[in-house]
Here is the input.
Amino acid sequence: MGIGNIFRAFQPKDKVFFVLFNKVADNLVEMSKEFHDGMMEFDLNDDSLLKRMSDYEHKLDDLTHEIFVQLGENFITPFDREDINMLTSGLDDIADYIYASAKYIYLYKSPQTAAYSEFSLLIYKACLEVQKAVVNLDGFKNPGVVKEACIKINSIENIADDVLSQAIVKLFETNDPINIIKVKSVLDYLEIVTDKAEDVANTIDNILIKYA
Here is the structure.
């Protein structure tokens, strides 16, 4: 390996990682927006929403794989490798559970409930804050903006917990065991999405504490 190649191998690759993180965050916003729109105009006989969620999930899997490839190829990273691993996995989990939520709505032929659209709006808002946090994490130039976004994500997760509790109370009042099983399963997946967003916020918070 020539001197030039050795020098380049040890140059910081911040741009590579943050470009990929931003792409992931952008796709999560698009995915969650389409999911919310789909819940607002839900048609159980039209599975095009499920196909779009699957496409997004595959696209985000590819981006996740690319980040891990870069992690293996680059000696110098913008922050700790373990934190990059956790952030990457956390972002991917958000996409996985959005897709899982959509999948089980269609597999169970679950009737639409008001809670589905409430959750989908919270998920979209959480993804917008994730995007804001990721964009402003680059270079640690705007730690206050990142911190504020993380706080909002935590608040959204708390609201989601309340939505879940209220939805389950109403669900049990239906006295329909089969429907209760189906809908509760979907509600659990939807609530997990907000949990995963909170995990991402906590990871970003820890990165800020170490480096900002």
About this structure: Residues 1-11 have pLDDT under 50 and may be disordered. Residues 177-211 form the longest helix (35 residues).
